Amino acid sequence: MGLFSRSGSEDSTATEPAATVVKTDDEWRAQLNPAEYQVLRKAGTERPFTGEYTDTTTTGVYRCRACNAELFRSDSKFESHCGWPSFFTPLAGESVIERVDSSMGMRRVEVLCATCHSHLGHVFEGEGYGTPTDLRYCINSVSLALEPETS
Ligand SMILES: [Zn+2]
Predict the structure, then answer these.
(1) What CATH class has 20-148?
(2) What gap in Å lies between CA 33 and CA 134, rounded to an integer?
(3) Cα(135) to centroid of ligand 1, in Å?
(4) Which of 4, 36, 122, 125 is 20–30 Å from 30 (CA)?
(5) In Å, what is the CA distance from 136 to each residue of 62, 79, 81, 82?
(6) In the 3-class helix/strand/coil scheme, how is 43-55 assigned residue by residue?
């Protein structure tokens, strides 16, 4: 049972950490643009190959667009050719929550921001990408804000 274990996710809802950034639906609606709101707060998915970070290789940190928490680093981003920004690991295990999502007739694992519980995307495993984890965090660009590294 390590960071990358998927088993045990079934009962994770009861133990997942509480959001530390909590806003009402009206507050989120006022803060986010309609596309951001639909993905982050309504678990929507942006159309593939349309997001601004799909092919981005800029060095930096990707933050949650809803609460600004640090979520992913550019050095774990890889070219998956799936149409969405893909990472093989979050910046830290506690920066995201993974929750089993059985909607749409299939079992997927949803990825949420641990700080504000906004929807980020899904994580898939065992797809055979040549990454250290064999995981693909498939994240909507609209959920992220890239902070380029300044040296
Ligand atoms: Zn957040």
Answers:
(1) mainly beta
(2) 33
(3) 21
(4) 122
(5) 16, 10, 11, 10
(6) CCCCCCCCCCCCC
Instruction: Give distance in angstroms: CA of 65 to centre of ligand 1.
Output: 7
Of 118, 117, 121, which is closest to residue 109 (Cα–Cα)? 121
Token pair in block for residue 104: 């749409």
82 catalytic? Reply is: no
Q: What is the pLDDT of residues 26-54, one digit of tens each?
A: 999 999 999 999 999 999 999 999 999 99
The residues spanned by each domain of the chain are: 20-148
Distance, CA of 9 to CA of 97 (rounded, Å) = 10
Query: Which pTM was predicted?
Result: 0.88
Specify the pLDDT at position 105.
87
